[in-house]
Amino acid sequence: MEILRTEEASIYFGGLHAVEKVTQSFQQGQIFSIIGPNGAGKTTYFNLVSGYYMPTSGSVFFKGHDVTHLKAYERTKMGIGRTFQNIMLFRELTVLDNAMVGMHSRMKSGIMNAVVRPPHTRQEEHEGRERVREILDFVGLSGFENDLARNLSYGAQKRLEIARALCTSPELILLDEPAAGLTTQELAGLIEMIRKIRERGITVLLVEHRMDVVMSISDRIMVLSFGQKIAEGTPDEVRANPAVIEAYLGKEG
Amino acid sequence: MRSMYPRIRTIVLLAALYSLPLFTKDPYVMHLSNMAMIYAILSLSLNVLTGFTGQFSVGHAAFYGIGAYASALLTTKLGAPIWVGFIAAGVVAAAAGAVLGIPSLRLRGLYLAVTTLGFGEIVYQLIVNWVSLTNGPRGLIGVPAPVIFGRMLDTYDSYYYLSATLLVATIFVVTRIYYSRVGRAMLAIRENELAAEAMGINSTYYKVMAFVVAAFFAGVAGALYAHEIRFISPESFVSQESITILCMMVVGGVGSIAGSVLGAFVLTFAPEYLRAVGDLRLVLYGATIVLMVTYAPHGLGGTITSLEHRLTHGRRPKLKAGGDGTTAAGV
Amino acid sequence: MLLQQVIQGLAIGSVYGLLALGYVLMWQAWGVMDFARGDGAMVGAFYLLIFSQFKGLNIVLAFILAVGASALTGFVVERIAYRPILGGRDINRLIATIGVGMFTRNLYRVMFGADPFPFPSVFGDNPIHVGKLIIVPQNLWITAIGFGLAYLLRLFLAKSWMGKAMRATAQDRETAALMGIKVKNSMTFTFVLATVIGGIAGMLIAPLYFVMADMGALMGIKGYASAVLGGLDSMSGAMVGGLILGLAENLAGGFISSGYQTAIAFLIMILVLIFRPQGIMGRRQ
Questions:
Q1: Do chain A and chain C touch with ≥3 beta carbon pairs under 8 Å?
Q2: Per-residue pLDDT for A253 more than 70?
């Protein structure tokens, strides 16, 4: 079943065609990678899907709904979660609070409930905490709940980003270069984690430079070059595609 | 096991606050205490805006003034009961906060700051020039004293209990907001607005809400001031007053609730006790502020939290709100 | 009537523009909104008052000495108050500038009292009659000096080595350091320059108003508003912002109500910012 589709989606920054008429459908439950040389428009495409950029032309559909004109926070509520390439944690908040912020759209209490704190608000807060602890445990951050995000190691910060996105209860998660800067050991853990995320029924969209990671876990791959989609298929198909080899793999061996 | 310490501390502080008039009824000290508590409410309310949400304001005196005039006018000209005046003060100021919150959606950092500064000037000039309503620079006299349980609070020491109660209520509400879903959303916006949106937070909504909440409490502080001093004039709501409130918040510690209260008390009492040095006191005041922010960057609140934590835990604390209120705002 | 308000507005506007240039320089090099700018202008005005009135020196000589004294003051203040908190949090640095302003203002109040000192018109009091129009010559002089200085500053930043170093520092401190620019010296120099320009703004406005310890607060606010209105990353924007504010104020004062002068100027500023959040000449971020 299709979960996400972009149709003829383009983003122009002045004269720069960052994304040019990309039409692509994504199936539920897959791990789907987007690769391409630097400046190919991968992150821009992510921003298009998550609502940070509005397309110059074209549309975005999520679960059959046209979300082209929805704002980022509205798309999060619908079930699109994301991480950022350059870590964007709430640095001065604790690990627990970072994750609790992720629960925002799954909780309801407004300002009156915050002040009065009736039983259902306490209940909601309690359940939120339980779920957050479960997710922190899932990404291996148990025991760090009360540390400030900025005091975590680089690898732990990346995992907190993922945990935070998972807390929004996404059906589709966009991971922007999760492997960048990780040690070999952490890398193995990451691959394992991405697979487990998929096992939770979450569709994974991945932008990644590490080809070993991409090739080992992706169900399908889309290749962008200068904003245009030049290929799409299974890892083996993409690897064998002459256009891809010329644009990308050819250069890096 | 949860420590009993916070609860004991709260009880001790409350007891100390409410028993102060038992030790001194000196009108001068009582009046200063009332002013310190009014400033504490102002500084707390500014903290919701700047400390929690990271929106920079140099126009807080405008809400303070709107609240003061709203209550004073209602009670003197329309003869409304004083409790109506207090509520109206909060509500009218909150409405003004919503209006000012709208430009905040497009502006950040210094651009927002100058807008709030401009708003403060506009409100001030309105108060000065709208003579038929406000009586202009001559001010409003005869603002009534509140009557509670049949007792007229027309002395500084009887009024003290009203100030203390409103301060405690403000601290309570602000603390509750801080530790809630709403408070977390505000902190997230302060820390990183883009990431907050990715968490499903409608930053527009919470930014305006922060303005409304901050303005509400500033308005109530205005009413508290008007009925304490019983006479209000535009001079009490000039831009300099906004800057004073800002200094109290920062010296107390951005984002720190206890700090806001401390900052207000210290900066209200210090200049009075510096009178001994005569005209030099405001020179020293300026120098003290420079030294404070240079050498105690987390403010009085931050310094006390670390001391306290070292006493109770024997190590350095992990400050939840040691954050830079305005990094994201780029001030 | 209209033309007279415009001429007055141009003069005041060019002074605001100079103040705004100080803000832009500080914002670019130091990344801080400097609330003590206006008090720097006040100090400049006092230096001119001291040298020309109290000491009775020739006005040109007094002006040169006052500029020198302003520069020296800038240097000392930078060392004592601005440099130590350079690595601090933004809001703390901003509050530090407020503290410096308070310190300066009250120090001058202690030294000279709170009363205003009249400053005689340097450029002659005889108004020039052009048809029905009455022009006070000093307004023309102030406008000319204001814009002349702004132009010289522009040339200096564009052509001189020091100016280029300052611009490089403003754009990216680290890269500038890699290029062999002594970033700290460059920042000190920018601070001194901003103080001098602000000081001259104070000297220019002295004959129009009075010289007093409290004059800085309002001048600071006007300069700040002009800088933001024009766009904090633009030198020409600063002058444009100053002119708009000066004109708006004088036209509002002349035709609507003098009581609402400042309010109307700020209202215009807020409206402009709502439609152009980055200021009139500022670049979109």
A1: no
A2: no
Is the Cβ pair B286, C103 closer than 8 Å? yes
Fold classification of B5-16+27-313 is: ABC transporter involved in vitamin B12 uptake, BtuC (1.10.3470)
B119 interface with C at CB cutoff 8 Å: yes
Of B122, B246, B286, the CB nearest to C267: B122
Reference B290, options C4, C35, C145; nearest CA is C35
Please provide residue A34's backbone torsions phi and psi, each rounded to the nearest 5 degrees: -115, 120
Amino acid at position C255, single letter = F
Is the Cβ pair A110, B182 closer than 8 Å?
yes
Rounded Cα distance, B272 and B84, in Å: 33
Contact yes or no for C88/B299 (Cβ under 8 A):
no
Phi, psi of C239 (to 5 degrees): -65, -45
At residue A140, the pLDDT reads 94
C91 and B324 in contact by Cβ < 8 A?
Answer: yes
- Does residue A85 register a pLDDT over 80? yes
Residues A204 and A173: beta-carbon distance below 8 Å: yes
Q: Which residue has the higher pLDDT, A251 or B144?
A: B144
Taking the C-alpha atoms of residue B264 and residue B41, their distance in angstroms, rounded to an integer, is 9
Q: Which residues of B touch A176 (CB under 8 A)?
A: none
A2-79+170-249: CATH superfamily: P-loop containing nucleotide triphosphate hydrolases (3.40.50.300)
Angstrom distances, CA of residue C174 to CA of A157, C181, C182, C184: 26, 10, 11, 11
Cβ density class C21-44: b for 16+ within 10 Å, e for less: bbbbbbbbbbebbbbbbbbbbbbb
Q: B72: alpha, beta or left, given left = phi > 0 and alpha = psi -120 to 50? A: alpha
Q: Where are the domains of chain A?
A: 2-79+170-249, 90-156
More confident residue, B312 or B202: B202
Question: Between vectors from CA B143 to CA B138 and to CA B148, what angle results, nearest 5°?
Answer: 165
Return the closest-CA partner of residue C198 out of C50, C37, C31, C67.
C37
ipTM of model: 0.93
How does strand A203-207 pair with strand C117-118? unpaired
At C137, phi and psi to the nearest 5?
-55, -35
Neighbours of A78 (CB within 10 A): 18
What mean pLDDT do residues C246-255 have? 86
Q: State yes or no: chains B and A have 3 or more CB pairs below 8 A.
A: yes
DSSP state of B140: B
- How close does chain B come to C125, measured CA to CA in Å? 32
Instruction: Answer whether C204's CB lies under 8 Å from C63's CB.
Output: no
Count other C-beta atoms under 10 Å from residue A5's C-beta: 16
3-state secondary structure of A16: strand
